[in-house]
Amino acid sequence: MNPTPSIHPPLMPSSGDAQRELEAMRKTVAVLTEALEQQQASGSAGGAFALFRQSAQLQTLVEEKTRALARMVEELGATQTQLVHAQKLEAVGQLAAGVAHEINTPLQYIGDNLQFLDKAFNRIVTLLDRVVEAAEECDPDEFAEVVQKAMKKARIDFVRKRVPRALEQSIEGVQNVSHIVAAMKAFSHPGGDEKQPTNLNRLLDTTRTVSRNEWKYVAELLLDLDNGLPPIEGLPSELNQVFLNLIVNAAHAISDRHGTSGEGKIVVRTRAEGDHAIVEIRDNGGGIPEEIRSRIFDPFFTTKEVGRGTGQGLAIARSIVVDKHGGEIEVDTVVGEGTTFRIKLPLSSPNESATESER
Ligand SMILES: Nc1ncnc2c1ncn2[C@@H]1O[C@H](COP(=O)(O)OP(=O)(O)OP(=O)(O)O)[C@@H](O)[C@H]1O
Ligand SMILES: [Mg+2]
Predict the structure, then answer these.
(1) Tally of structural domains, the chain
(2) pLDDT for 201-217, tens place per residue?
(3) Can you give the CATH number for the domain in which 221 is found?
(4) Disulfide check for 255: which of 12, 110, 141, 218 has CB 3.0–4.6 Å away?
(5) Beta strands in 185-263 (DSSP E)
(6) pTM score above 0.70
(7) 84, 211, 265, 302, best to mutate for ligand 1 pocket (most atoms within 8 Å of CB)
(8) Domain of 343?
């Protein structure tokens, strides 16, 4: 029996070689099969032995070609993985600057508050010392007046009013910082190649947090998440990358149309639909002109200037969604109104592990 080749055509640009190989193999098989059929039909010379020999040759050839193709597909897969990782590292590097900025603001007011609390504490201690002193030195008639004066000097009313607020704000700030740091940690986690139960809502929340600096000057970003969305079998690190690419694209489109006027809006929505999870990322940017729509998923197609985009975002997004998750990604866009990218991911992939082990 011939081994059945299980080959998934990769979507990256270098898949051309593998496709040409596959085509050449198909042709060879067709020619040999035709020759065999002719011999069979004419019952011609050599009879059964020639038939057997040709069939054996055919089988060897198919096996060789299959092995060569499998090697090529493996190499292509590795190249594709490297590309995805390289883009991810680049994105993480870029986000790091924004995240540092986001963390800096709460850290600054936490620092200011701690200085204020230090002063307040000193005033309270001084006041207490004065009260103890007065208790030892003063007459009972004098005591109340001395304490009153000391309290005024320590501006104790102000301290009482401001300390709780400073503490509350600092606790909030620390929570904020740890939320951002946890999100950055989750986002930059390398992930690995094994699929795992993945909560898409959580990924989107994380991506929103780490990318805030990329959109906050041009848009608000609303999450409209379906809390009942079941986990999918997926690669969280790579899906984060997809969502980031789409959010950054949305922010760019909005910035081009509205600048920092405050009219920008990005809505990220999740829903369960049958046995699929749907993620939609909608923006009210300028839309995608008809003449370039068919090319936006092409590797290295970009309309952005150098330094703002390299045209890899959507090609990588499609490769991750379609090749790695068996999902779909489509776009709905109206020039002058905005764009919605819609991703459809299977909730579970029961055949996945079987297919993997057959390879
Ligand atoms: N939401 C959107 N609104 C309008 N145009 C978009 C949107 N998303 C993508 N495009 C168009 O599709 C092109 C390709 O997008 P893609 O994300 O692949 O590359 P890029 O954003 O240009 O660069 P990179 O993602 O590598 O930084 C963009 O240059 C832009 O013209
Ligand atoms: Mg992009």
Answers:
(1) 2
(2) 999 999 999 999 999 99
(3) 3.30.565.10
(4) 218
(5) 196-198, 219-224, 232-234
(6) yes
(7) 302
(8) 189-358
